[in-house]
Structure formats: structure tokens, C-alpha cells
Design brief:
With 399 residues, this protein is an alpha/beta fold. It folds into two domains: 216 residues, 3-Layer(aba) Sandwich (Rossmann fold); 124 residues, Response regulator (Rossmann fold, 3-Layer(aba) Sandwich). Helix content is 37%, strand content 21%. It is built from 13 helices and 15 strands. Helix 7 links the parallel strand 9 and strand 10. It comes from Haloarcula marismortui (strain ATCC 43049 / DSM 3752 / JCM 8966 / VKM B-1809) (Halobacterium marismortui). Keywords: Plasmid, Signal.
């Protein structure tokens, strides 16, 4: 399912800030953390959502798109205030937020009670699945229930480890992954998790937390978090512990090509997983993203494009700025078996949906078919490793 967040409202260039339009105007809020814990990946995720908006605007299909951006600063309180600003501005759909902790707070306190449809491109905590959301919350990445199990499988089967320890960010994202890894590693593979140590973001040093995590000499270390804290954690690890050859596993939140440079140390002992992007429109998306931003897309960029695309298609199919009507179209535009719509013909897809035609949005990241919880029905992950110059995929794994 989903989430959002942010501080002061900032209108995007060329966009109005008077949401709640009707007819052929799609009004969509974008709530994402571009500062704080996700500052290294948030701006690019926002860019991907805006690219989907641009595809519709440039289609000359009679539709305009009105957006308003709110920066959550990767803080739940800012997410709630930003979501309130969008709801009060009349925006019936919200693309965002990023962090699971922000998502959960915004969903419970703003989106659900105000019947606002949300679709997150990166909130992966299993807790999102259990929200009593009346079907107003969706997400385009897979749940971490799957990723935690996959990391455990990699530790046990591919790395052949019998013991592990986990250092995890103390929020919904970190807790969900830590518990998911532990359950699978111990119950399915007979391994032992020696320590589960939580940490808070914003500390000047994580040496003591690392010491507690490494107590008992585990064979592998799992580090869960975001780049802002990850920079310090890995720097402390390499500077203070003679374990540079230790196998370390990380989830999607710590896949960042600039991490080794920021840490100042070789990180080739680190492997990880992140949701894959294998949809039929992936090459078109990569080219369009490169042309627009002069850079390659990064983690969750494809999921962000998909989240924005599905929201706009559902709004077009509903024909009005009514959250309930839009909610009722979220699955119809993704799994109806109608005419194929992807990034290359998204503008046309909006017109088709508005005219009452059945469409089947085929995601950049892969199939976007929602189950009863608003989660993806299936998922594919990248198994990757850090290199001297960033990261590279080892293989794709379907779960």
C-alpha cells in the first residue's frame, strides 16, 4: 500500500497550485522526501514521477496535469503536514511517499480518513499491507516480507552462512526487514541470528552499535537503512574493525552507486537486493529519463514512474476528482486485459481510459497488478554487488 509526506508546499515549474480541478485536468500531489535520510535517492525518484507527468502533458490529448510537490524531509511529521496541505488544496491523488515510516503515518492520519488515493513508489514495510485503508493505499514496489526472506536465502544458500547479525534502522522499514530475515534464516534454513541491534538516524558515530552487532563473531552482517546513516556506518566499520573481507548484505535502501566514494573505502564485500525493473517499456523509459535529466535512472525510479502513471490513468477513467471513484479504477487500469498502455503511449492511454475503454497498464518496473492489500501480486528482485565504481547486478530472482 502507500504513503506520503512534506513541509511547505512548493509548486513545480509550470504547474498551478490550485488543486481540485475537474474535467480534463488531472490534479495530483507529489509527496516525497528529497532531503533527510533519503536525500541521495529522493530527488531522482521525484524526477521519475515528473517524467510520467510530462508524458501526459506533451501528448496533446486535451488533458492538462496540475501538480503540487511537498517535501517530507523523510520525517513522518512533515509527511502528515504535507499531505494535509494537498488534501486541503483539493488533490484527490497523491504519488508518494518514500519511507515506510512516513507512509504509514500519512495513510492513517490523512489519506484514509479523507478518502484520498495514494500510491507509493518505495514504501516496502510489511506493515503497509495490514493497514485498514478501505482500499485507498497502494504501492508499486514489492513488500519487504519478500525481500527479507530473499536476503536470508542468499545468506544461507549462496553465501553458505550458518550465523548472522543484523544492524537495522529503528523504523517500520528496518524492523520489517530485520524480522523477516530472522524468521526465514532461522526457521527455514536452521541458521542463527546472534544479534539484532537497532540504531537511530542522525548519530555522529555508530561504532558502539557495530561492536554490539558483531559480538559473538557472526559469519555475515546484515545492515539495513538509508544512505545518510549508511555512509557513517560503513565508514565506522572499515575504520574500526578488521573485517573488510566479511560478507555483508544490504537491502534496497542501501543501494547507491556513490556510497563507496562517500565512505572512502572499497566495498566489494557487500552484496544486496533491490526490486528489479523488467517491464516491456523499460528501454523507452531509460532513454526518456536520460534525455530529460542527462543521467541514468536509479533505485525506485521505475516504480515512481509507474505509481504516477497508474494514478493518472485511474483519475482519467474515473472522470472526476472523487477519491472513491478513482480508487475503484486502480485495478481496472492495470489488470483488465484491455489495450496495452506503457510509458511510450501513456498520453494516449489517458485518453482511452477517459473514453471508457479497457486498458492494461504494463509497468516499467514489471507487471503492476494489485492484490487485495494494494500490494504487487508478484515480484522480481536484482541480486547485486558493489564494485570499485558503484554497483552491478549479478542476476534477477523471481519471488
Amino acid at each position: 500500500m502507500k504513503s506520503i509526506g512534506a513541509a511547505g508546499a512548493v509548486g513545480l515549474a509550470g504547474c498551478s497550485t490550485d488543486g481540485g480541478s475537474s474535467g480534463n485536468t488531472i490534479s495530483m500531489g507529489i509527496l516525497m522526501g528529497v532531503t533527510g535520510g533519503l536525500s541521495e535517492v529522493g530527488p531522482a525518484i521525484r524526477d521519475a514521477a515528473e517524467l510520467a507527468v510530462k508524458q501526459v502533458r506533451d501528448a496533446d490529448n486535451g488533458f492538462s496535469v496540475d501538480t503540487q510537490f511537498e517535501n517530507t524531509e523523510t520525517k513522518p511529521s512533515r509527511g502528515v503536514s504535507g499531505a494535509e496541505a494537498l488534501v486541503n488544496g483539493g488533490y484527490p491523488i497523491i504519488c508518494g511517499g518514500l519511507a515506510s515510516s512516513v507512509t504509514l503515518q500519512v495513510a492513517e492520519n490523512v489519506a484514509i480518513p479523507n478518502q484520498t488515493v495514494m500510491c507509493s513508489p518505495s514504501a516496502t514495510s510489511p506493515d503497509v499491507s495490514s493497514l485498514e485503508d478501505n482500499d485507498f493505499v497502494y504501492r508499486t514496489p514489492p513488500t519487504d516480507k519478500l525481500q527479507g526472506s530473499l536476503l536470508a536465502q542468499i545468506a544461507a544458500e549462496r553465501l553458505e552462512k550458518e550465523s548472522a547479525a543484523i544492524l537495522f534502522l529503528n523504523n517500520a522499514y528496518g524492523n520489517g526487514l530485520s524480522n523477516g530475515f530472522t524468521k526465514t534464516f532461522e526457521e527455514e534454513y536452521g541458521g542463527e541470528v546472534l544479534n539484532q541491534v537497532s540504531y537511530s538516524a542522525g548519530r555522529s558515530s555508530y561504532t558502539s552499535q557495530l561492536q554490539n552487532t558483531l559480538d559473538g563473531d557472526p559469519e555475515t552482517l546484515v545492515i539495513i537503512g538509508y544512505p545518510e546513516s549508511g555512509n557513517k556506518i560503513f565508514r565506522n566499520f572499515y575504520e574500526n574493525f578488521d573485517r573488510a573481507d566479511m560478507d555483508i548484505l544490504v537491502p534496497d535502501g542501501l543501494r547507491a552507486d556513490d556510497l563507496p566514494g562517500n565512505v572512502g573505502h572499497d566495498m566489494t564485500n557487500v552484496r544486496g537486493t533491490n526490486p528489479s525493473s523488467a517491464g516491456p517499456g523499460i528501454e523507452y523509459f531509460k532513454s526518456a529519463y536520460q534525455d530529460e535529466y542527462d543521467s541514468a535512472p536509479g533505485p525506485f525510479n521505475q516504480q515512481s514512474f509507474d505509481a504516477a502513471a497508474v494514478l493518472m490513468l485511474a483519475r482519467a477513467a474515473a472522470g472526476e476528482d472523487d477519491g472513491t471513484a478513482i480508487r475503484d479504477q486502480m485495478r481496472a487500469v492495470t489488470d483488465s486485459g484491455g489495450e496495452a498502455v506503457g510509458p511510450e503511449n501513456l498520453g494516449e492511454g489517458v485518453s482511452l481510459a477517459a473514453d471508457g475503454n479497457e486498458i492494461n497498464y504494463q509497468g516499467v518496473s514489471g507487471p503492476v497488478e494489485f492484490d487485495d492489500n494494494g500490494d504487487l501480486a508478484s515480484a522480481v528482485y536484482n541480486y547485486f554487488r558493489y564494485t570499485e565504481n558503484g554497483t552491478e547486478n549479478i542476476e534477477q530472482v523471481e519471488v
